[in-house]
User: Fold this.
Amino acid sequence: MEIEEDKALAKMQIPTLVGEVKVAVKAGSPVFILGRNGTGKSALVNRLAAQWAGNVVYMPGARPSYFDNESLSMTPASRRDFTHNLRHYDSQPDTRWKSMAGTARNEKAIHDLQAAETQYKLDAANQIKAEGSSSLAIARLQADNSPLDIVNSLLAQANLAVQLKVADGELRVMRGGPLYSYARMSDGERSALVFAAEVVAAKPGVVFLIDEPELHLHPSIVVALVKALILQRPDCGFVVCTHQLELPVAVQGGEVVLVRDSVWQGEAITSWDVDVIHGSEQIPEWLWADVIGARRKILFIEGNNTTSLDQPLYSLLFPKVSVRPRESCRDVMRAVEGLRAVEEVHRAKAFGLVDHDGMSEEQMKKFEADGIYPLPIFAVESLIYSEEAQTAVAAQQAETLGIDHQKMLDEAKNAAIESLKGQGKKEHLASRLAERQVRDHLFLEMPTRQQLMEQSVSDLNVVIKSPYPDELARLTALIGKSDIHGIVSRYPVRESGVLNGIAKGLRFNSRDDYERAVLRRVGVDAKLRDALTQKLGNLAAQLE
Assistant:
């Protein structure tokens, strides 16, 4: 198997009984190593760490999850010395099963994160000093995009309700109460922190070798965390050895190295029996059967796998549920129908969540009978920009900026309403909603294939009263009352200036900054999570 030399950050060269198998490790395209226990997966990862010394961040399976001290003891000088020692440790076969400088590895991750955070703030301060109050560095500092901000966002996406900050020169943890040392976090939280710190603080172009990330981590955390780490560093390579088969399914576009067996000579493996498969859909059934345990719930949602808000939000709201995006409403329906039709041969219960698109109560009941739950609100933006989400974020902004939160909420509402007063704005939103209502009505009135075959339907006649006049009148009334929350919950406001107006009114530089702030709040604010979950109607009860 040949690899693309010019695009590879590293080259996996795996000896087998019939020759060498080569796999390219490319930026943005993870490689997952899968197989039963005892096939030699961890030994293969250890071999790769020795081959790639110098351009790899190796996280061995034998790593401990604790720290020796509550405060950082590693200095810049000892960190430089540790780099040389680490290359030696990573090249040793014993690192596969024995903790080699394990706690020092953890401390190195914290040291690098703090150093990156300090340098980020120092660079901004120097730029502001040179450029004055017009410096773009001010907006950069307000964008919540420092290394520590990114780590906090990654932990929130992994459903971990902790936030880190630097206080009195030390990295500290906050979880609804007083600050405490990162060393006092739970095993899973510490492991997640080390992973996130290593990835965020690493130099461009490195390859991360991660052996069994599920150690110390609940399955609902490890999938969300590793996916978020990979998406955070599209400039780096990832090789992940795991028993968590949800990982290659959740992170599309990678390669899978399936390890079937290995050959030992003395105390070392000399060759492996491997297959390289392209895409998680080719993972063999026997491997799923070996790994899958109790029946689990899967929620299929509309949305893009990498850019939409849906998956990170619903993963936070339902941490025990596997959330899978599909391109369209029809794709969601097909996925749910397909799994529910063969429930006797798998251990999953499928549900679907689709945009409301102005459906009637009757239409919603028909969908729910088949396991498809239309949002009682228009779309995911109706949750992200809901009254509860705006209020929670405004309160946080008020603490940070010293501005009255109600003043910001009023400015956000006024800016959003004003954006709808331009020529053709309300007509556009009303017509888009009316168009979708007509489309969905036609879809529901379509005869089934069985009806067509039985010739029970001869003429296909569908009469629909145009919903546009009523929708335009409704929207006009809502604008007149400045009912921004009613508008957000019912209309496709992503196609207007409403969302930008809300973000600016709440003192965010962009919609993206506001939306990231909401996701962080959802991760740490149980009251906000409950409020948003209740907006999902009957689906929330099904997924409890």
